[in-house]
Design brief:
Elements lengths: L1 H17 L1 H10 L5 H21 L8 H24 L5 H23 L4
Length: 119
C-alpha cells in the first residue's frame, strides 16, 4: 500500500509539472509577463502550499549543514525552472519539457546500468 501511495503521488507531481507550459506560455505571450515574475508567483504558491505543514504543526527542524544544502539545492532548482522557461523562447514547449523530464530518467538509467544502483 505504501508504494502504491508513492506511485500515485509521483504521478500527480509529474502531471502538474508537465502542465507548466500550459500556464507559462500564455502568461509570457498574452500578458507579457517576464520569466522572473512567473517564477516568483510559482514559488509563492508553492510556499503557501508548504504552509500546510505549519498548520498541521509538523516539525520542520533542520541543522545548519542541512540548511546550507537546502539553500544550494533550492537555488539550483530555481535556475532549472528559469532555464526551462527561457527555453520556451527558442524551441517548442513540448520539446523543451520533454528534454527537461527525460534528463533525470536518463541519469537514473545510467546509474542502474553502470553503477548498479538499486533504489
Amino acid at each position: 500500500m505504501k508504494s502504491l501511495k508513492g506511485i500515485i503521488y509521483a504521478m500527480i507531481s509529474s502531471g502538474t509539472f508537465g502542465l507548466i507550459p500550459l500556464f507559462t506560455i500564455p502568461l509570457m505571450g498574452n500578458m507579457e509577463m517576464n520569466e522572473s515574475n512567473i517564477l516568483f508567483y510559482r514559488f509563492l504558491f508553492s510556499t503557501l502550499m508548504g504552509a500546510v505543514c505549519l498548520l498541521h504543526k509538523s516539525t520542520l527542524k533542520i541543522n545548519m549543514k542541512h540548511l546550507i544544502s537546502i539553500i544550494g539545492l533550492g537555488a539550483l532548482y530555481a535556475l532549472t525552472a528559469l532555464f526551462l522557461i527561457y527555453s520556451y523562447h527558442y524551441i517548442t514547449s513540448g520539446v523543451a519539457t520533454t528534454i527537461h523530464f527525460l534528463y533525470p530518467i536518463c541519469v537514473s538509467f545510467l546509474m542502474v546500468v553502470f553503477f548498479k544502483e538499486q533504489k
